[in-house]
Amino acid sequence: WSAVHTCYSGASALAEETLKRWRDAVGAPVYEGYGQTEAGPVLSFNPVRGTVKSGSVGIPVPETEIQIVDLDTGTRVLPCGERGEIRARGPQVMQGYRNLPEETAQTLRDGWLYTGDIGEFDADGYLYIRDRKKDMLIVGGYNVYPRELEEVLVMHPAVLDAAVVGARDDYRGELPVAYVALRPGARAGDEELLAHCRANLARYKVPARIRILDALPRTSAAKTDKNTLRQWAAEAAP
Fold it and tell me: Please, are residues 132 and 118 in contact by the beta-carbon 8 Å criterion?
């Protein structure tokens, strides 16, 4: 591994625990970036000749402006440290969806591409992706970001992969449901994993239930198939 000095990651966020394990094993950092097809497809990246921040997708690429705006109106720009929807503009942003004027009008507003992702900037101008707007849960009136729960779950030494989705609940609106794949040869029950969550999360963020799978379902792009998981969570709801 001594010849390896540059590693890149994209398409989906890596858990910070995975980033740490890779760096400890290989000795080289993973440079994470961020973007989407509508943005040609890159919006930000950790600078190779600069500071690399674990868990961050870096700083805007040249000629690109990124802002964090409120979730309700999408017009109020939020300061560093506050979470909101990511919007961007630059020469790489698309002109629109072909033959889909309504979808185009929803995504492109006043010259900005509304990404549908939730994020925040730190004081140094580094961007952090917290979740997809559509994935955010409202649990008893509180915003719950599945990625935070997933990060906690993969901190457990027996957990290889984790995904959290919401299930409808008559009293609290939604409840977090976690799906977990264990490392080969590892053993852990759902009660052990729930205890781990209780020790590291606020009470309202703790999953209502945890299901252990051989492997998480994947899309054709090798991303976690959360639509399938949502369907399973709805079918298993009491």
Answer: yes
Measured CA to CA, the distance from residue 178 to residue 200 in angstroms comes to 15
Per-residue pLDDT reduced to its tens digit, 65-97: 999 999 999 999 999 999 999 999 999 999 999
DSSP structure class, residue 46: -
Which three-class secondary structure state does DSSP give residue 75? coil
**Are 77 and 68 a contacting pair, CB within 8 Å?**
yes
Nearest to 158 by CA among 192, 202, 200: 192
User: What's the length of the chain?
Assistant: 238
Sheet holding 7-9, edge to edge: 7-9, 30-35, 42-45, 59-60
Strand pairing partners for 34?
44
Beta strand pairing call for 84-89 and 65-69: antiparallel
Contact, 181 vs 188, CB < 8 A?
no
DSSP 195: H
Global confidence as pTM: 0.81
C-alpha span between 141 and 98 (Å, rounded)? 38
The Cβ of residue 88 has, within 10 Å, a number of other Cβ atoms equal to 25
Q: Residue 13: which of 145, 177, 128, 149 has the closest Cα?
A: 128
pLDDT, tens digit, 9 for 90 and up, residues 135-166: 999 999 999 999 999 999 999 999 999 999 99
